[in-house]
Task: inverse folding
């Protein structure tokens, strides 16, 4: 692991067994019931709605008669702890529809859920523990007193939430709780949350002048400052380095197209509500900003007459697409409306799927190894479910594509799990899940197998018999969205990027401008001409300049005083309190170039 990351590995990232995951789900679900019971004892006129399990705990949504604040959480948690000893089993009952409607007669939220279940003909069940009864499908601990560690949970925060996630509905109060099997796991999560606040890419992006947002430009449309653009370009350059040796060709496509393109691709039927429509002021023609790059790449392929000897054809394009995300869902760089995908499409023969997918997976591994994010990664094999209205294409196409990706997972011995119903509408996919330096999981890279697009666009190449034959399209993205990946990378590195990725790689600090300024400027000019990203800090006191360099998270500082000037050497101080005195310029350049060339962490 890198020299940058170990200090953030305060806690080990532990992978749980399925049995442990199931038990943790039951603990969290049981605590959600306890939260609702405590709230009703303290605020009897409150209407509880739903309380599901989430990744690090649980939440419950309530309609309170009067607003509550974060200060009330301590009181609610105290009440939960006082009720807990009286709880033991969760007793299931199956009431009649009249009984259940009578019990929740004063709660329109529960009645709505009850009516929905009744319309679907689904069983309605109650679970009772202590004096608390809730509408619930189950999944609780067998014995609350012995299975729930009260030292391993705490109420976390309050947020607003629309009923059933619909902004047209009433805003409710959501209370979040953290819950784990052990107090150590809870402590780890609290540390992770504190660390996440320090690493928030929105905060660091502003402090380090990486990107900006403007009300005049619009929500979800980031503007990259010069330093932020360096980040983008370095990531893009690295991605291209990984691809060009595998026979990819860089292409370019426009940002908009006619609706007919998306009607053919199927996006108009599935994504139209999320697309931006553009009306030409002069031409009076209607266009859409592209929500995907795929259909454009299909047109590039179609404008050639490829033979089997040309296959596979591999296109690479870091291209910006646009999606009309809801304003309330936008979040810094991790949820935006202008999305630059490091997109790629491969047009392959069916017998080339396996080898090409293996090459893509190896590129993914190389990229995330360089980023220090390979610990604990796993892959979701995203498959279709039984609802055929959601998927394009024939059963035979899907079975072939799903079998191909499953074979890749098995042959490469990937740590994978099936995700039923998680496929793209045109085909199955591999979604790669990576953990950052503080253990948070992000879905980033993806590989998708598509038998449908070639049929819809009537793509073909000429086979050995001189006959047209359908290719298969493989969609792949390594970083995913550059905006989102950069947001993740800022938080993963805490803004302290490795030298190759850092917007400023070296800061030169003369002890005295009067006595050491000329030598400092000479070193600055040499490094700058050799494409080292260097800054000369000569204003203010030396102490303040050193602090500024550290606050800016610059990897290296070159201190120049009498000794360095007279000996024509340098003192190099690293961001992690390393120090090399008397280093020559040649040795410095060798060190920097080695770290940059090898993309050292």
Result:
């Amino acid at each position: 692991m890198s020299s940058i990351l170990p200090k953030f590995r305060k806690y080990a990232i532990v992978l749980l067994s399925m049995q442990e995951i199931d038990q943790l789900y039951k603990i969290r679900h049981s605590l959600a019931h306890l939260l609702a019971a405590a709230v009703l004892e303290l605020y009897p006129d409150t209407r509880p709605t739903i309380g599901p399990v989430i990744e690090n705990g649980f939440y419950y949504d309530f309609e309170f008669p009067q607003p509550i604040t974060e200060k009330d959480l301590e009181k609610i948690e105290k009440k939960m702890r006082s009720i807990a000893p009286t709880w033991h089993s969760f007793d299931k009952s199956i009431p009649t529809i009249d009984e259940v409607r009578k019990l929740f007669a004063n709660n329109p939220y529960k009645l709505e859920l009850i009516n929905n279940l009744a319309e679907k003909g689904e069983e309605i069940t109650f679970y009772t523990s202590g004096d608390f009864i809730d509408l619930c499908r189950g999944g609780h601990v067998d014995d609350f007193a012995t299975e729930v560690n009260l030292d391993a949970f705490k109420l976390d925060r309050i947020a607003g939430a629309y009923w059933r996630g619909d902004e047209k509905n009433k805003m409710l109060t959501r209370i979040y709780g953290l819950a784990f099997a052990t107090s150590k796991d809870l402590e780890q999560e609290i540390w992770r949350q504190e660390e996440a606040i320090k690493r928030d890419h929105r905060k660091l992006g502003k402090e380090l002048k990486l990107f900006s947002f403007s009300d005049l430009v619009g929500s979800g449309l980031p503007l990259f400052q010069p330093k932020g653009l360096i980040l983008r370009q370095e990531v893009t350059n690295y991605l291209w380095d990984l691809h060009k040796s595998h026979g990819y060709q860089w292409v370019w496509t426009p940002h908009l197209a006619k609706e007919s393109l998306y009607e053919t691709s199927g996006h108009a039927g599935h994504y139209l509500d999320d697309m931006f429509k553009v009306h030409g002021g002069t031409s009076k023609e209607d266009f859409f900003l592209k929500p995907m790059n795929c259909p454009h790449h299909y047109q590039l392929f179609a404008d050639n007459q490829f033979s089997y000897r040309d296959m596979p054809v591999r296109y690479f394009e870091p291209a910006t697409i646009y999606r009309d995300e809801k304003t309330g869902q936008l979040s810094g760089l991790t949820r935006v409306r202008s999305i630059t995908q490091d997109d790629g499409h491969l047009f392959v023969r069916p017998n080339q799927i396996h080898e090409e997918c293996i090459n893509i997976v190896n590129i993914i591994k190389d990229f995330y190894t360089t980023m220090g994010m390979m610990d604990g990664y796993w892959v979701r094999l995203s498959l279709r479910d039984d609802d055929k209205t959601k998927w394009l294409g024939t059963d035979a196409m899907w079975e072939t594509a799903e079998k191909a990706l499953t074979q890749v997972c098995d042959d490469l011995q990937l740590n994978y799990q099936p995700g039923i119903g998680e496929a793209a509408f045109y085909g199955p996919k591999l979604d790669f899940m990576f953990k950052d330096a503080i253990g948070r999981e992000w879905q980033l890279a993806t590989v998708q197998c598509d038998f449908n697009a070639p049929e819809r666009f009537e793509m073909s190449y000429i086979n050995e018999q001189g006959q047209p034959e359908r290719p298969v399209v493989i969609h792949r993205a390594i970083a995913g969205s550059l905006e989102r990946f950069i947001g993740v990378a800022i938080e993963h590195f805490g803004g302290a990027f490795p030298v190759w990725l850092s917007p400023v790689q070296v800061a030169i600090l003369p002890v005295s401008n009067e006595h050491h300024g000329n030598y400092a400027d000479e070193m600055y000019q040499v490094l700058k001409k050799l494409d080292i990203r260097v800054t000369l800090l000569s204003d203010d006191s030396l102490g303040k300049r050193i602090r500024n360099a550290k606050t800016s998270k610059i990897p290296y500082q070159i201190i120049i005083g009498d000794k360095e000037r007279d000996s024509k050497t340098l003192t190099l101080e690293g961001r992690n309190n390393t120090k090399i005195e008397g280093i020559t310029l040649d040795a410095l350049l060798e060190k920097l170039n080695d770290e940059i060339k090898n993309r050292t962490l």
Notes: The first helix runs from residue 18 to 42. Residues 499 and 505 are 6 Å apart (CA to CA).
